[in-house]
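writing this on my phone so excuse typos. first protein, seq and then structure
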Amino acid sequence: MDTHETRRTRDVRVAPRTIFLLVAVAVGAVLLLGLTFAVRAILVQLVVAIVLAMALEPLVSALERRGLRRGAATGVTFALVVMLLIAVVYTVARPLADETSRLVHNSPQLLDQLSHGRGRFGFLEQRFSIVERMQSAVDSGKFSTTGGAAWSVIRSGLHSGGQMVFVLFLTLFVQLGGRQWYDSLVDLVPTQGKRRVRRTGEGIAEAVGGYVVGNLAISAIAGTVAAAVLFATGVPYPLPLGLIVAILDLIPLVGATLATVLVAAVALTSNGWITAAIVVAALVVYQQIENNVLQQIVYHRTVKLSPLAIALSVAAGAQLAGVVGALLAIPFAAALKVVARELIAWRRGDDAPAETSITETAERRRPLGLRVQPARRSPETPA
């Protein structure tokens, strides 16, 4: 018998309902992507607020353990954060305003010295004829848009300040209702998966919150070291410059370098080459200690990511969302690792990820840098 005759052809029919569902899912996905792109700025601010809320959760929990209700503990924490921000802004803005006022008051004398090639910046006139070039630019009308540029800078500053205030209050709202929202989402999960989902959320909160708190501690150390070095070398305004160093140090990879360049420029213009070289050398030495010791402790205790994964995460975050993306890249990568670990355990049929053991749990409860060595069993001791 011919084998071709024994073959049976099967007709493949697709129900109209299946086609309709496929088209509906595709259209819904496109609309969702479009909506996400349209509100991407708000989503980024929401993510920042969630990360900040995770970082503040240990303080809120500590106040709750002392007898305060959730709302009162959140209010006290919010007030402390606002007071800290006001103190930082005042500390940085006051010397800036003083120097600006002094510059305006001394501008006639400085211009006279500059036009005659004298003073600290007299070399600009001697070598580059800067006064003549500026006068020529003014006469040609190239500076006619200076007022518009200044207004653009002021408007950008006001917009950034408004965004910061919005993120701050959004963090407050997330802190107040985040736990209820999380519990409501967990209740939507089937009973057999609630334990895994809750463990995933707690792992993400622990990794993100621990990273943020650790990074803030490292930045505070960087600012303290910078302020001490500037105070010892006689550079003016050591405390405001130390705060600026601490803020810039929060930016991964490039923040410490930017802070060093800024502080070196101030030291160079105020105290000369020798002081600037001493300041740069001290900050570079500290950066090596921070990169090879402090960051390794924080990253190993919280995100548990390799240096290559951290570098790729920061580069991708900076490419997608600039400075904010670079700041959120490492916590986001840590969250993805927690989710991926739980998914792998679920696919294998394990109740918990392999890395979640008694030894690791004990290590997490110990201070940074302390490790728990597993007990050695003798050959005759059964496993």
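second protein below, same order as before
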Amino acid sequence: MGGGIRVPCILRLPGQLELGTVLDQPFISLDLLPTIVKLAGGTLENQPLSDGVDVWPLLTGSDSVPERDFYFEYRNFSAFRAGKYKILRTKTDAEFMLFDLSIDLGESHDLADQHPGIKAEMVTRFSVWKNQFAE
């Protein structure tokens, strides 16, 4: 059901990244910019607000990236992942659905009615994130 949140990323950097490495810790496409800029010796000071972080230590296995939240909004789709939970809506005027990714990676069982408190907290956190970008 979800899209854009859980898709493969294939990277190739001979001599830098070990062949055949598979990571189970998530990162987002927004992480590529700060990672590449840092590898090139640059900085992103005074740049627009972004959720991306340098994931080079994760890619090389030298360290992990602390667990963090992932936000997504594009056209009618909105999603927020925090730990094992994810909220998702496919229309801007629809209610968010709630999924427990630790037991339902395919996002087929909406748990919003069983866990209204978790859903409400996540919707609030999503709204706070989204309001950062309001003009």
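The first strand starts at residue 70 and ends at 74. thats all i got for now
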